[in-house]
Specification:
The chain is α/β, with parallel strands linked by helices. It has a single domain, classed as Nucleotidyltransferase, domain 5 (2-Layer Sandwich). α1 crosses α9. The N and C termini lie far apart (37 Å). About 13% of the residues have low confidence.
Amino acid sequence: MSVACLTDILVIQEVLAWRIVFESTRARTSTVMSAPTNPTTVTIVDSVPVLLSLLDNLTNLPSHPPSLYIKLEGIYLGRDGSISILSLYLATTKMTYLVDIHVLCGLAFSTTNKNGDSLKVILEKPTIPKVFFDIRNDSDALFSNYQISVDGIRDLQLMELATRNFSKQFVAGLAKCIRNCTSIRSAMKAEWQHSRDSGAQLFAP
């Protein structure tokens, strides 16, 4: 799968994730909780039963191309910060899952299903490819907070660096990669930026 195709998937994942986080957070501040606008596309994982259901859906996934696309959000994400949300896009079903780490804490990674799978096991398993964009802070946060040593990572940032046909002195951020990706429609780029800006306010108001 090309870098452009992987970028497309990450853009869709981020738009969905930010939209549902923003809407869910806004709903929690209201007297009456409203349901997500697109429940068939995004699932909020904030309880052990829902987490177990997610783990069951992550069994025996195709690895070529990768099935899992993951992004972490948090406060000062890294070894000195905290993880708030793990967003996971499952390409086989086109579902996005938002794992609420703030609510589940360590249970998000230690909960194990009947097959012996947990998010920790999946993140550490070298035979399960997982696509990230710039794994550095995510890896730092996972190891420092939950002693998770990630493996099987496909870092889209490094893939872009390796395949570009101009200067390779510096890596590019996701926003720049999206701006330069000709396969992504302008409308989707604009929606991604709007969703990202709205969602970022939740972590850095």
